[in-house]
Task: inverse folding
């Protein structure tokens, strides 16, 4: 039996309580994971300073170089995992078996994570606007333009409370180590694989194990362990639903990441040619099984919305579940009992509105909800929503789902609400200016860009540098006479 | 028959006899309380005639603890105890009318029995105690105070309203709940530092952890604060927490023992610590005054096999209270009798999985 220990600043810890991570289709136990307890985390965080001290023995450039090596190892090597080892193929197989994500999507996410690791230097340069690394290490320094700047680290170690259902989020914490801060991870109950594999890859690449803590635990321990991370790390990130976002709103120590409500907006100047953008719209909804905050959940246009919805439904409606190892498998499974049924019920309730039509129903040839013995699926669903104020106009679910919403262009920005990725197809300069000024859109794409096509050199849901460091005044000499 | 089997047999005989006496007391119109006298009319059998042993108690329907809500609370007072000064202790009550239990001396008796299990070298006679747990209309506060007095000491207490903490957590106000916990720990630190010769302590796992962390932050420790013995309780006292607490919060010289109980049943003791158990925690009810059974999830009248998992079912047979089978909000594994407690026990107590989504646990 594969046993995976708790990691406490690089030291393995055998817990008295363990949880089985099981294959969602067969019920086979894939690993026995040792569970942390909240006190353990709080106790360890008293030593977080040491992690930063150890990492500062390396330059940021050295750590960036080691990240690239780690990326290669993560992607291609057979690495230790607990009392066993794991090659890339079994990594994808196990991740798929516990998260319900088809294997080829796990493989894609693996490539994406490795890309970020291998290109960490460029990413840091972009996120810091070219700040010399020494300034982050020393806390201050003189820029080439002769200006003294100071960036003070907000924490010795950064905590991440990770989800089970979206292996793509791991890219977000990767910069922490090259930024010379300890890394504290609370993996999702069904997804210990990526954190542990990355930890081993970093260690094999020469980054001291003493910089890492991994605190796994089952769903029943989520509140205890997540709460301990958030309480004891000076900066931490948590993933969750809207309630999580609201709970931590305004808390400078915690960055809460949740639903993205990402959208495609068609300007009035291009909407008559909507068929040209059908591939962009379909891919944005469907790729990665819609299981991402950057997956498109809304398409907004002032006209042709019924035709757009119908065309998308024809493409997406017939898609049905396939085995997880089928390279054409496009739908992820819901492994949590009752979750898919509850979502499907919410959609059915929403469709009772006179403004809402499930356009996919006529192309699906079956129910949206596919219930199996050990997992469920939701088949792609495209709604047409004729009233932008209807609750279904701005809804997100974790499967290929989108609402095609009819809304006058001059009302769109005020009606779309929070939008993580807004891909706006328009050449209208006035509308473009309004979009640029819209503060409810986080990542703005103006042009033919799929919502999932992220440029890693851009900040995501806030710049991690601004979260982990604070710009402040520093002088080591009197200022020049005014 | 082995020595243990003999002890088990004797304990069972004692329980059967005790149950018959208890039923006679509670259902005799001269000595019983109004609640059970009236209830007897609806049972379809005469408990005084038909309950001849513990197994017969299963003829009663399961006790509905909602019956404990609301007044008049005097309906629970056995006539045979009329005129004695009574306490009322509450359980729950975050929303709505709390469940109430009348008590005269049960809490004293329960904790005097528990006192016999505490080692004098870690809970020295005559030393003072700190009660770091819920105050207000709770049995625990007075029970711990009595335990301390029974052992010749004086008990210091803190103010702690767990209902307020539940309200904060339900509203997602974790920062405020943390501030309230800090306020409680502030009180404890002040008392411990005031030269009162405090050596014994009751604490909930969460508060003990918070206290130990604060002392570490202050450059000291529970041991250096003078504490030599602690008892703690609740489903949060897990094997992992037990180990963490002994190894990292307390050190080898501070004794800690787990307990399990509630306002209705009293206090179940933990099996004495044995390294061979690898921190597994096994509780035994204070028989014959109370009984714990582990029953099947889909048949609460059927006890599970040893080592099997089931829901906790409690019985209370004291002069003050008769509870013929109450379904507790916990589950666990049934354990074999041991020499010091020759009746079946329970290990791995944790919140009943079917109620997990509706229960806010470990609030203090």
Result:
């Amino acid at each position: 039996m594969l046993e995976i220990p708790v990691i406490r600043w690089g030291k393995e810890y055998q817990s008295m309580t363990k949880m089985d991570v099981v294959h969602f289709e067969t019920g086979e136990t894939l690993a026995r994971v040792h569970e942390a307890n909240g006190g353990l985390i709080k106790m360890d965080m008293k030593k977080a300073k040491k992690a930063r001290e150890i990492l500062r023995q390396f330059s940021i450039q050295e750590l960036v170089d080691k990240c690239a090596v780690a990326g290669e190892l993560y992607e291609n090597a057979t690495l230790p995992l607990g009392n066993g080892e794991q090659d890339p193929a079994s990594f994808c197989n196990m991740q798929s078996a516990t998260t319900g994500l088809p294997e080829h999507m796990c493989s894609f996410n693996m490539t994406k994570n490795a890309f970020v690791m291998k290109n960490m230097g460029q990413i840091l340069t972009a996120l810091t606007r070219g700040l010399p690394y020494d300034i982050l290490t020393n806390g201050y320094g003189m820029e080439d333009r002769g200006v003294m700047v100071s960036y003070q680290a907000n924490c010795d170690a950064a905590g991440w409370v990770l989800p089970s259902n979206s292996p793509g989020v791991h890219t977000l914490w990767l910069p922490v180590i090259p930024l010379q801060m300890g890394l504290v991870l609370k993996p999702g109950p069904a997804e210990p694989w990526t954190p542990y594999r990355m930890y081993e890859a970093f260690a094999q690449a020469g980054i001291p194990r003493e910089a890492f803590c991994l605190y796994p635990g089952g769903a029943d321990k989520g509140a205890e362990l997540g709460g301990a991370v958030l309480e004891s790390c000076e900066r931490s990130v948590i993933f969750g639903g809207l309630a999580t976002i609201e709970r931590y709103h305004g808390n400078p120590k915690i960055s809460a990441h949740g639903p993205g409500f990402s959208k495609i907006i068609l300007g009035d100047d291009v909407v008559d040619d909507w068929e040209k953008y059908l591939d962009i719209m379909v891919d944005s909804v469907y790729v990665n099984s819609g299981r991402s905050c950057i997956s498109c959940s809304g398409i907004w246009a002032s006209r042709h919305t019924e035709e757009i919805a119908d065309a998308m439904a024809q493409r997406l409606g017939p898609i049905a579940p396939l085995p997880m190892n089928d390279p054409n498998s496009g739908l992820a499974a819901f492994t949590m009992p009752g979750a898919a049924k509850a979502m499907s019920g919410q959609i059915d309730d929403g469709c009772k509105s006179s403004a809402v039509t499930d356009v996919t129903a006529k192309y699906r040839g079956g129910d949206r909800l596919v219930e199996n013995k050990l997992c469920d699926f939701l088949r792609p669903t495209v709604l047409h929503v004729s009233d932008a104020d209807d609750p279904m106009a701005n809804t997100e679910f974790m499967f290929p789902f989108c609402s095609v919403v009819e809304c006058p262009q001059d009302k769109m920005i005020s009606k779309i609400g929070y939008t993580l990725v807004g891909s706006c197809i328009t050449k209208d300069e006035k509308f473009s200016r309004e979009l640029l000024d819209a503060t409810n859109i986080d990542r703005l794409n103006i042009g033919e860009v799929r919502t999932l096509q992220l440029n890693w050199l851009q900040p995501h849901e806030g710049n991690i540098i601004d979260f982990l460091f604070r710009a402040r005044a520093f002088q080591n000499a009197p200022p020049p006479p005014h | 028959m082995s020595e243990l089997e003999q002890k088990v047999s004797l304990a069972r005989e004692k329980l059967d006899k005790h149950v018959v006496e208890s039923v006679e007391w509670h259902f005799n119109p001269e000595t019983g309380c109004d609640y059970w006298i009236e209830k007897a009319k609806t049972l379809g059998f005469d408990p005084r005639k038909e309950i001849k042993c513990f197994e017969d108690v299963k003829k009663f329907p399961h006790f509905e603890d909602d019956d404990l809500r609301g007044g008049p609370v005097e309906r629970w007072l056995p006539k045979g105890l009329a005129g004695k000064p009574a306490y009322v202790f509450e359980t729950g009550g975050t929303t709505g009318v709390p469940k109430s239990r009348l008590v005269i001396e049960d809490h004293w008796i329960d904790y005097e029995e528990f006192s016999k299990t505490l080692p004098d070298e870690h809970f020295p006679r005559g030393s003072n105690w700190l009660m770091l747990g819920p105050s207000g209309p709770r049995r625990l506060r007075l029970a711990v105070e009595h335990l301390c007095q029974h052992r010749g000491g004086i008990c210091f207490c803190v103010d702690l309203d767990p209902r307020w903490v539940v309200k904060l957590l339900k509203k997602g106000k974790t920062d405020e709940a943390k501030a309230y916990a800090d306020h409680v720990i502030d009180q404890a630190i002040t008392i411990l530092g005031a030269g009162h010769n405090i050596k014994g302590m009751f604490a909930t796992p969460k508060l003990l952890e918070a206290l130990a962390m604060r002392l570490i932050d202050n450059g000291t420790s529970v041991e250096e604060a003078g504490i030599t013995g602690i008892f703690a309780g609740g489903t949060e006292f897990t094997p992992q927490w037990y180990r963490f607490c002994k190894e990292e919060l307390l050190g080898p010289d501070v004794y800690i023992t787990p307990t399990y109980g509630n306002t209705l049943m009293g206090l179940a003791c933990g099996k004495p610590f044995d390294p061979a158990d690898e921190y597994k925690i096994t509780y035994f009810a204070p028989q014959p005054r109370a009984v714990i059974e582990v029953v099947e999830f889909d048949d609460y009248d059927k006890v599970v096999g040893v080592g099997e998992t089931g829901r906790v079912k409690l019985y209370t047979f004291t002069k003050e209270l008769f509870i013929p089978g109450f379904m507790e909000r916990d589950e666990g594994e049934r354990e074999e009798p041991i020499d010091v407690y020759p009746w079946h026990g329970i290990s791995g107590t944790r919140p009943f999985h079917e109620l997990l989504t509706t229960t806010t646990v470990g609030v203090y």
Q: What stands out?
A: The mean pLDDT of chain A is 94. The first strand of chain A starts at residue 3 and ends at 4.
